[in-house]
Amino acid sequence: MDAAKPQKSKVKGIVIYFCIVGALGGLLFGLDQGFINGSLDFINRYWKLTTSGGESYASIMILGCVLGALISGWIAKSIGRKYTLVIAALFFTVFSFWGAVTESYEILYWTRFCLGLGVGSASCIVPMYLSEIAPTRVRGAMISLYQFFITIGIFGVYVSNAWIDSSFEATWHNDTWRLMLGFLGIPAIVMLILMFTIPRTPRFLILKKKDDEAKKVLKKTLATEEECIKELKEIKESLAQDEKLKSSGALRNLLGKSYFKKVLLLGIMIQLFVQPLTGINTIIYYSGIIFKSAGMSNPATGTILVGLTNVLATIIALVLIDKYGRKPLMYSGLILMIISLVINGTLFLYSSHGAFGQIALVVFTLLFIIGFAYSCGPIAWVICAEIFPLEGRDFAMTITSAVNWVGNYFVIRFSLTIMNSLGGSFLFYMFAVFCVIGLIIMKYFTPETKGVSLEKIEMNLKAGKRLKNIGI
Considering the domain 8-198+249-469 in this protein, what is its CATH number? Predict the structure, then answer.
């Protein structure tokens, strides 16, 4: 027993390293999300953009994300999860630096769209890579690393934007945004290099008839030879079933199957109502503008607090998701978000922008961030990576990821317009209503998947169990 423990610990460390590097795709998304918050004023002034024009620049990346998510599944099937992420990092590196030096707004706009291609691909492929490389006992935490790195990227770029603003604004003036955008390319280079240190997933290697390479990966990630043999057998059986389904035409008829239509619709609803329609990206992108509209003289301080809180609160999910389950965290998080949104909406309704109102606005914005960071942020991706049946998993993840990005586009594209025309109170109340809908979806339709194998979830789904009960 004593001899086995160090081996198990060592393997677990290797798995965690693989998952950390694989999850760096979330860092790219976080960096680009946070970039807008702090740089948009400079970009608007430099290119003489209106409020609508600024929203358009901020949101065009999301259309790239939609396309990236839609094509990433096909690319990953051809070259694997790992090298799809390499391409995503390469895109992010090239187009960050290109956008930072261009003198053409059309090129700047186009490079932001291309950044979205990389981010959207990563959003779809990272959860797949993590679910295929991580052991069942830590699968939830490892998939949650994707959201954790999103928060690190957001916080990191908030800090760097504030530092660049205070240190270089006097000499660079309206060109400060170039330094902010160029900074994004540096972590992307690091990710690009580290991606070559992680393996391709055993599932993909076996699919490509590279059994020996798959065995080597399994020996690194599993504790014993018996586990390797068992896992290898299960992967081959799974792929054989997958190929049988494809050859029989079942894949083409997926949308005609009631169980698949139901679970796909659930995935779409989760990716809409507990992700973008909660208003999280309005806070991430525009918190500086929101705080400024409330009369704060130094909105950057509040923005940095948002980023730091986002990182720290996500750690709660990493620690608790495989211990207490997905749904308890979702319930408490959504309730906290609803309360925070209603109070912030009321602050705007009564124009309480004095010192007390400003402090309250920041406090309840931070509480909203805490609620999202340990619940909706990571767990939506975890659940969607777990509930879809094998023959439709790639397709379903592609569709639900794309829907998430479409929702993000509309939220980011129109939030400032709604706030300017209908008021901040309307905006916050609207997001609170969407959170209530998300709570209903969690309560009555979403299964608890903690500690349940993907195979059992699929078996229960196909046996006709209610969606809420497929994890039992």
Answer: 1.20.1250.20
